[in-house]
Structure formats: structure tokens, C-alpha cells
Amino acid sequence: MMEEKYIISDYCIIRNNRIVLNGEVVYTGNESSPGEFFSAAYRYFTISYAKFFKMDNLCKLGFLASELLLRGKNINDVYPGDEVGILLSNAGSSIDTDRNHQKSISKRDEYFPSPSVFVYTLANIVIGEICIRHKLFGESFFLIEKEFDAKRSYEQVKQWLDEQIVRCCITGWVEIDNDRYEAVLYFIQKTSVLQEGIAIFDAEKLTDIYLLGK
Amino acid sequence: MEALIAKLKNEIIEVLNLTEMTPESIDENEPLFVEGLGLDSIDALELIVLLERNYGLKLATAEEGKTVLKSVRSMAEFIRKNNKG
Amino acid sequence: MKEVYIISDNIVSSLGFSTPENIKRMQSGETGIRQWEDQSLSPVPFWASRVDDIRLHKCFSAHADPKDFSRFEQMVVCSVKEALSHTSIDVSDEKTLFILSTTKGNIDLLNKADTNSKAGSPVYLWQTASKLQHYLNLANTPMVVSNACISGLMAIIVGSRLIRTGKYEKVIVTGADLVSEFVLSGFNSFLSLSNGPCRPFDKNRQGLSLGEGAGTVILTSDLHVIRAHKIRVGYGFSSNDANHISGPSRTGEGLYLAIRKTLEKNKSRVDYISAHGTATPFNDEMESVAITRSCLQDIPVNSYKGYWGHTLGAAGVIESIAGAHSLISNQLIRTMGFSEPGTTHPLAIIDTNRKAALNSCLKIASGFGGCNAALLLYK
After folding, report:
1. What range defines the domain where residue C107 resides?
2. CA C324 to chain centre
3. How far is C378 from chain B (nearest CA, A)?
4. Are the beta carbons of C247 and B40 separated by less than 8 Å?
5. Residues C220 and C236 in one domain
6. What does the pLDDT read at residue B20?
7. Surface of C (101-160) touching A: CB under 8 A
8. How far is B44 from chain C (nearest CA, A)?
9. Which residues is C302 bridged to in the sheet?
């Protein structure tokens, strides 16, 4: 039997009011705010998931990117939920929502912290939302780094795959800070049949894809 | 009472981000939790904040919350009872 | 497969600035949770476990000028430095990694920080980590694990895995978090803070007590630097409930999976469980479900949250250290705050300090976002 190789079978980039899926622009928006852009994209793709509107912008971004990444893959039919890993990273953690929460407690005479805002003041909630949506129970965690560290992500995911901690993995960068946002998500799988043009999973390829259209 | 109920429906849609709902689609007698609107624990806490912020009424425990937050009507009655709406 | 050892550790908390001091005070039945009236943190009095500011100032002044480091950074430095003082290893080389585990880092600076500054703001966790890297003279960019309340346990799991691959020879794992206005107000809005010291697994528990501190473990597989008491870090796993972003799964799905994978991989019996035990009605109930589903309901189990409060990003590290020391001393420590069982599934809650032959400890943790983790520590 041929040796199994790890491949980047899919990727989704959301940046500059555009959504790119596996090299193809699948949506272009002209909304002025990230939140409006995310909502417009949600409607365009006729995603039916009312919880979307409760999410903060970081989760909306991560949700959209993973939704499109996994669209049509029937992931639950291919992999047991506890064998799908998720490794995400960003620089700001949940800074956007942190500011909102901070605002709600900054005046003692208008002190109304909101539980639905506070619950989003943790970056790993993005992972939680993705897991709930796609029924994923596998290994996961969230890393904070100044910039997307392709080498670090590659090493971590590779170890997960080598040691069969997971059988496939969603990994990448999900970041929003004021009006700057970007999501680059990759779906990493094993294959024993290397098709023409398919990207091998390594740090250089992660970086190449990350930089597309940046 | 009807005006208060209408106001509450709008406020609930806003604070709970029920973006795809309209006030007309909420039945004030239907349960808010489990069935009906199917709200969850964070929604319940958010409604407790709503009552405090917009109506000056403080609910201290989950038990009190369960009765008051049963439906939009029970919320309105609670507000009326405390002369706040 | 390489064995990974804890060769040194430290706890900075309300109960002291070294592991021995913390353990001693815990064993004598002291809790670090008390009531505070501090308008800068909360408009109403609150119960929490806080690091003594005067001692922190004194401790840190021996290392650097407190004016140049935030409270959070001071705790981390004091913890790392003290842990390192018990070893002679060189941590300035390429084969050393520093993993920082925290949920909110310097969040107390958010209301004063210019988070739009191009130079970066200390509120950004990578910025804090970078500053610590330079101060501690470390070669590699630190890894920052920020994954709610399982961060500390995840950081130890990740660190031990990296040693097993040979990528690093030494890993310093430090978990730290503050009691801050930001977090207090949030948990208050959840109505999940206890009005009094928290009561893990107790029938009358009403919520958690927040805590702050820093915990450090130094991991290596280098046999030459192993100290007399060898505690090994076994295999650990994380898993998600895929149920709700803040409420634990009624079936304890994620925690059960994490425990199952941990037990299958380690092929070891469990002599004692260090639970998460935050004392919220839902968490402790969920843990009782997961522990029972794992057939571990007769294994002695405790929670340390009644001593240190819930130290968030530090909890997984601080409580793993306590678990490791239980193994070393063959001593089980009672669950402070517990008196009457209060979960649907009965557990073997440790309610008095007692001696026991202990070889292995299962540490478990759960957090917002539906995350869960489990790890085995053993002699």
C-alpha cells in the first residue's frame, strides 16, 4: 500500500471583502463594516443557522470560513467527530469583543455587563462554535502569536496526524481587530493517492496560500 | 399592557440578536425557553440584564428568573406588578 | 518513547510564593479565598483569592524594577525564576521552549491601553510573551496557549508532546491569570459567583470563587537533571462537547472522551483524580457524569478550587503541581468547602487529609467553548 501523505485538500480565505475558496473567488461584498460584510455573506450562501447572529465578529468570521471550507464535504460521514482536530491562532485573541465588554463596565453609573458579550471574550469560543455546528469532538486549542506562524502550525498538526491524535484537521488564522479582519483556514487530510495539482501539507505551502491576495 | 408587550418584543429581539425574527412572529403567551422560542441559559441571563437596565428591576436568582421569564406576558406582568412599565 | 519528567515547579498564589509553602498551608486547612471590598475591581464586595501585593512587590524587586512590568508579568517572572532556581539547566538555548498559558493576560490594562498602537500594546498576549522572552533571555518565541480554563492543562500536554518528538529538550510551562474587574464583572453577569468561599461538589454550592496566580512546571526528558522525586507526565488529550459555548454538556461528552482517550493511551490505573470542581451547579454535576461514565466513581477525587479559587489560565498548572505533590508525599488533600455530596452521581470526594499509596493522578479540566482536557501524571 502506498505511503499516506498529508495534503491541504481545501482552503478558504476571507479578506478585503472577498471570500476565496480553493483559489476561486466565491463572494465579493462592498459593505463598509466587517459585521455587515459577514452578515451579507451569510445570507448570500443561504446558510440557515440562527445562532450566527448571536456570535461576535470573530466567531462570525471563523464560522463563515469553516462553513465554506467544509461545505459539501459531508465531514460527519467521512470522519468520526472525535478524530477531527482544530488548531487556530491569531494575534488579538478576542480583543474586539474585549473592548465591547470593557465599555460596558467603564462607567459605574451605567454598569451593565452583558453575559452574551462576555461569553465571547475568549478566542477559543470560535473553535466551540465550529464544533457545535459540525458536531466535532476532537483535539483542539487556540494559540496566540504576533503573525501566522506556518512552521509552528505545521509541526503541531503534523504531530497530531503522525500520532493519530486526529485523522484530519482544520487549521489556520482567524483574526479581527477593529476593522481589520482576515481568516485563512486549511483542511488537512491524509491521502494515499496524490492527485495532480494537490498541495502537499508543509509550512511553505501554508505560507504560500496565506499570502494569496494579501 | 399591550403596548408594554409590543415594546418588550422589540427589546427582546434586539438584546438577544434574534435578527431573523419580527415582533409579529413572537407569541407573548408561548414559552420562551425549551419550547417556543427555544432560548438558552445565556439568553435568560441577558433578559435579566434587560429587566434591570430598562426597567430597574433586579432578579437575583435563577429560580425567580424561571417564573418571571416564562413568557413575554409573564415578563410584562412582572414589570406592571412592580409599577415599572 | 521518551519519558517526560517534571523537574521543578512553583506556585505563586494567595497561599504563598513557592510550592512547599502553598502545599503546607493547604494541608493545614488554610484557604486563600476571602472577601474583598475594592471599588477598582467591583462595585460590590466579592469573594476571591488574590496574591499579596506587598509580597509580590518584594519578590519581584529582587529580579527587576516593578515599575517596568505589569502585575501579571511580575507573577509570571516570580514563578519562573523560583522554579528555575531549583535546577541548573540552561534555558537560553534553542532546545528550550517557554509556553505561556493564560486566558486574559494583562487585561487589567485594557482600559488604559492604546490598543491601536503600532508598537503593540501590552494587552496583546503575544506582546506580553515577547517581553517575558527577552527578560528571561530565551531563544525561541514563546508559545501562548489561550483556551479558556483548560489552557494550563493543554499547555502541559502540548509541552510534553513536543519533548517526545525531540523538537525541544526543555519546556517551561507557566499558567497565569489575574483577578480583574473585566473577569469579575463578566462572571457576575453570569450569576455564577459564590457569595462566600466556593463549595466544590457540595449540595449547597452556588458558584465559583475567582482566584489569581501563576504556576510553573519545568519539563524535560533529560535523565541527568531529574531530581529525587520523579513525576512523569503521561499522555493527555482534549475534546470538545460540541454542545453549547458556555454550558457544560449534560452527558459530559467532551470530558468523557478526553478521559477515555487518556486512559486508553496510558494503560495505567488511576489512584486519584484532581477534578476541575469549580463549584458551579452545572460544572460539578457534569464532571460527576463524565467520571461515572468512565467507571472512575470509586476513585478518590478532590477539587483544589476551595483553596486557590478558580485561577483560570493558571488552574491547570497549579492544580497539576498539587496533584504531583500528592503523589510524591502519598497524601490526599481534602476538598476545601465540601461537606455534603451534591451531584446526581455519587463520587468518592476526599473530605479529610489522609495518607494513601498513590502512583498515578488523573488531572481533568473543562472550560468555556465546550473544551475539556485530561492528563495522567505518575511516579
Report:
1. 4-225
2. 13
3. 39
4. yes
5. no
6. 87
7. 103-104, 107, 110-111, 115-116, 120, 123-127, 129-130, 141, 143-148, 154, 158
8. 10
9. C274
Helix (H, G, I), strand (E, B) or coil at A119: coil
| Rounded Cα gap, residues C73 and A129, in angstroms | 31
Q: What would the grid cell of residue C331 be?
A: 497524601
Arithmetic mean of pLDDT, A137-161: 98
C-alpha cell at A176: 479581527
**Quick one: C18 and C116 in the same domain?**
yes
Closest CA to C243 of A131, A84, A76, A138: A131
Residue-level length of chain B: 85
Beta partners for residue C143, in sequence order? C99
Query: CA dist A140 to A25, A131, C51, C265, Å?
Result: 29, 10, 31, 18
Mutate which of B15, B41, B59 to disrupt the C interface (most C C-beta within 10 Å)?
B41
Residue at grid coordinates 468523557: C256
Do C98 and C57 belong to one domain? Answer: yes
Are residue C262 and residue C361 in the same domain, yes or no?
Answer: yes
Average pLDDT of the residues in A83-100 = 97
**pTM over the 0.90 mark:** yes
Q: Is residue A40 classed exposed, middle or buried when 0-12, 13-18 and 19+ CB atoms within 10 A define those classes?
A: middle
- CB of A179 within 8 Å of a chain C CB? The answer is no
Q: In chain C, how many domains are there?
A: 2
pLDDT tens digits along C292-341: 999 999 999 999 999 999 999 999 999 999 999 999 999 999 999 999 99
pLDDT for C103-112, tens place per residue? Answer: 999 999 998 7
Same domain, C116 and C220: yes
Looking at the fold, whether C57 and C166 belong to one and the same domain comes out as: yes
DSSP secondary structure letters along C105-125: TTGGGTTT--TT-TT--TTSH
- How is residue A150 annotated by DSSP? H
Between β-strands A84-90 and A168-177, what pairing exists: parallel, antiparallel or unpaired? parallel
CA C184 to chain centre: 18
